[in-house]
Task: inverse folding
């Protein structure tokens, strides 16, 4: 996740994978049916992407715990080393995809539309309590009222701020509104000689801001970011850059926002929870804190990046596949995974159990899961994403007015979609 956000690229660039084979009978442990007799072990496969060695080791241990508690199921874990979505699509077309696999919200709309995913509504019982999941995260894997995936974890954005720079500027506590953010950015820039606010000029970070005034980045599977409401919402960022109180990581030779903040080149930055461990490990002497992102017109906002477990519609072991999905996304399995600290749980009860809402550093990220804009809700988002980024950057760098840049981006994106 950290590597992905450094590139600030398509969520689909998150390469890696993990594959899993397991065996078992269905939810009820019935002695007959697709899963064989009670003495049989059903082998199923789980595909995902690789991550850090520590993450992979913990995930493997969690799968082992599942198998210990479900001895009738054996899980084969396969790590897709690169180009995960390309590999997955090839396997789906070839009819040899895993029974269960990871699916990012960014890729979900297009894949749900193809009919290759098994709807999960008929598997879910009242006891499973799907209402315990944060609503925006469930919605990301729902299409036309049908649920196709259960979110395994999530990451969100919050405000990182440098407490020493705030003290130097005579500021107490983080800004709570966008107007205060702009005021603080100016004061901090003047007092510290560094940027008051760091900006990653990327739709994956800016979508919630772009839609804060009632506009929409996409509509009917087409780009719609020339909407005056979108332009109005994003214009303050352009103006902060023009006033030289906001800058991008590239302005200071940094690769990504966390590095820019860690180097003390900006006093404030919207970044994800993956930045916490990066700062602790790389800049242990930095004095910093986090807060919820300042409100815009009184409304909270953030971005959420989430991944779900989904079931292959062609799987011949659906009962065992559901048993695995339901355990991994149930309170026990999710607490084991989220408790490792790599990502945040998608169930409110698990966040409560882990004390995340009350955690000084992690609390703002946990709270954001309930209102964040999920990074994906359109089958053509990859095309829209690329064109937005190209033209927004030109406006951010002062090469053309924002309204003209977004008009051009929308025109080109929709032409590509129609072609």
Result:
């Amino acid at each position: 996740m950290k590597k992905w956000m450094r590139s600030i690229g398509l969520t689909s660039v998150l390469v890696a994978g993990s594959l899993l084979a397991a065996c078992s009978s269905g939810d009820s442990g019935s002695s007959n049916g697709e899963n064989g007799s009670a003495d049989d072990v059903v082998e199923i496969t789980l595909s995902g992407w690789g991550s850090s060695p520590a993450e992979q080791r913990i995930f493997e241990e969690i799968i082992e715990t599942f198998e210990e508690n479900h001895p009738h199921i054996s899980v084969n874990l396969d790590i897709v080393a690169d180009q995960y979505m390309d590999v997955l699509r090839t396997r789906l077309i070839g009819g040899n995809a895993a029974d269960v696999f990871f699916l990012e919200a960014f890729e979900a709309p297009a894949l749900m539309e193809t009919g290759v995913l098994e709807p999960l509504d008929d598997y879910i019982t009242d006891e499973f309590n799907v209402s315990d999941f944060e609503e925006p995260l469930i919605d990301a894997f729902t299409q036309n009222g049908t649920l196709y995936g259960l979110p395994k974890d999530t990451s969100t954005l919050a405000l990182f701020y440098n407490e020493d720079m705030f003290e130097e500027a005579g500021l107490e506590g983080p800004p709570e509104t966008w107007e205060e953010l702009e005021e603080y950015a100016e004061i901090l820039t003047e007092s510290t000689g560094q940027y008051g606010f760091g900006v990653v000029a990327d739709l994956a970070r800016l979508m919630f801001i772009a839609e804060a005034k009632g506009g929409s980045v996409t509509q009917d599977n087409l780009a719609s970011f020339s909407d005056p409401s979108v332009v109005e919402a994003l214009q303050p960022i352009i103006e902060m850059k023009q006033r030289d109180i906001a800058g991008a990581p590239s302005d200071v030779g940094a690769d990504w926002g966390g590095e820019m903040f860690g180097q003390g080149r900006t006093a404030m930055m919207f970044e994800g929870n993956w930045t916490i461990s990066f700062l602790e490990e790389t800049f242990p002497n930095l004095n910093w804190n986090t807060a919820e992102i300042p409100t815009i017109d009184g409304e909270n906002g953030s971005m959420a990046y989430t991944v779900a477990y989904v079931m292959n519609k062609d799987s011949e072991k659906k009962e065992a596949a559901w048993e695995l999905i339901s355990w991994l996304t149930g309170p026990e399995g999710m607490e084991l995974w989220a408790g490792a600290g790599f990502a945040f749980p998608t169930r409110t009860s698990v966040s409560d159990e882990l004390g995340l809402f009350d955690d000084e550093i992690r609390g703002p990220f946990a709270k954001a899961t309930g209102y964040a804009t999920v990074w994906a809700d359109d089958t053509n988002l990859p095309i829209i994403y690329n064109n937005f980024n190209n033209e927004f950057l030109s406006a951010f760098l002062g090469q053309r007015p924002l309204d003209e840049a977004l008009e051009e981006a929308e025109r080109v994106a929709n032409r590509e979609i129609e072609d």
The CA atoms of residues 71 and 173 lie 52 Å apart. The first helix runs from residue 2 to 7. Residues 1-38 have pLDDT under 50 and may be disordered. The chain is about 40% helix and 15% strand.
